Structure formats: C-alpha cells, structure tokens
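Per reviewer request, we include the raw input and output of the structure prediction for the construct analysed in the revised manuscript.
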Amino acid sequence: MFLRVLHDDDSSLVEVLDLPQLFDPFEPLVLGRLHAGEELQEPQSWPKAQLRFPSGEALPACWL
C-alpha cells in the first residue's frame, strides 16, 4: 500500500511494508520505504500522524 507523507517541502509516497502495523492503533509508527529517485531506499519508520492516503484523505481514526 502506498501512502503520501506530509513534509513542509515535499509530498512523497511511502510504500508501507508492514500492513498489520499500520492497522494497529497502539503502534504510532509504521515501517515503510520512501519512493524517491531511481534507487531503492532503505526501510525506515514513519509516524502515522504524517501519513495520508494519496488522495489527501487522513488515515482512519481507528488506525491512529
């Protein structure tokens, strides 16, 4: 699943690598890989509060 990460300067896509972690309301972070450039990026943790659906919609409250 791809989500948009909100930054002040850029709105890049993050590939979520652990979907159960995304759906767990007790997990504040989710493991994902930034899709920027041509090289495969290293996985890192992203705060769920900074993630949105590609359409711009916020994540459901039950996931947060």
